[in-house]
Every structure is written in C-alpha cells, then in structure tokens.
Amino acid sequence: MKIKLLFHYISYLQYPFMLMALYFAFKPYFNGFDINEEKLSLIFKSINNMMIFIGLGISFSTLQDTSKTSLKAEKKIWEDPKAGKRFIMLISLMTICTLVFGLFGYFITNNEYIKEVSLGALVLSIGFIGFLKAAIEVFENHRKDKKMPTNTA
Q1: Is the pLDDT of residue 23 over 80?
Q2: Distances, alpha carbon 17 to alpha carbons 21, 32, 58, 90, in Å
Q3: What is the C-alpha to C-alpha distance for residues 129 and 59, in angstroms, rounded to an integer?
Q4: Whole-angstrom Cα distance, residue 114 to residue 104?
Q5: How is residue 80 annotated by DSSP?
Q6: CA-to-CA distance for 7 and 101, rounded, in angstroms?
Q7: Model's pTM, two decimal places?
C-alpha cells in the first residue's frame, strides 16, 4: 500500500472528531437555559472541548491528498489566483487570531473563563496551521496561472 493512500485513509478520522465537536457544541443546550455559575462553567468547558475536537479533526483532514479536490466550488476557488490568495489570507488571519487568543488566555489573563477555553484555542490554532499548509499546497497544485502548457509537438 502506498504511504500517500494510507494517510488518505487515516484522514477519515476527521469525521469522528468533528462529530465529537458537534456533541460538545450542543451539550450546553441539553442542560436548560437558566444561567448560573455552574452552567456557565459547563458552557466554557464544552466550548473548550469543542475547539479541541475541531482542531484534531482539522489536523486529520490535512492528511488528504492535496493534488485532488472533491468539490466544484472548491476547485473554482483554488484555480482562481485572486480567490485562492484571499482564502489563504482568511485562513492566515483566523490562525493568527486564534493563536494569539490561546496564548493570551493561557499565559496572560487571570479570567477563569478565558483560561478555560485557551487550551482549546491553542489546539484549534495548531489545526489551522496544518490546514493553512494544506491550503497553500492545494493552491499551488491547482492554480491556473502557474500551470505550464504541455508541448505536444
């Protein structure tokens, strides 16, 4: 078995992680809507767990083959140089903001709720870093202005 194919199959682990993130996203809603200190703590713990599992899911999704795209809309974005650059800038901005928030929450703030979600933000930002690298590879593989015409003469 090719190693590239093995990593492609391993990338399917992203789906259980995303389902766990979805569970933690909805978990606070199952406990009622009255807000007290205990419920607020549960909400922030759920947000933290949700971000951890999203970060893990994104990390596993980056193991897919970057020379292929699966959706027509995705292919349109990556073939267009301007749209691809905008998308990479958006991912970069999300990565930086999440990383700065995670570092701020983990090392600087004294707010217990921000500290609660800072670890999740750090894991999510690590996932975004892998996603950014994969996005750059996909962009380089699919952009139309960099494709060299083949000489068939």
Answers
A1: yes
A2: 6, 25, 9, 23
A3: 9
A4: 9
A5: S
A6: 31
A7: 0.84
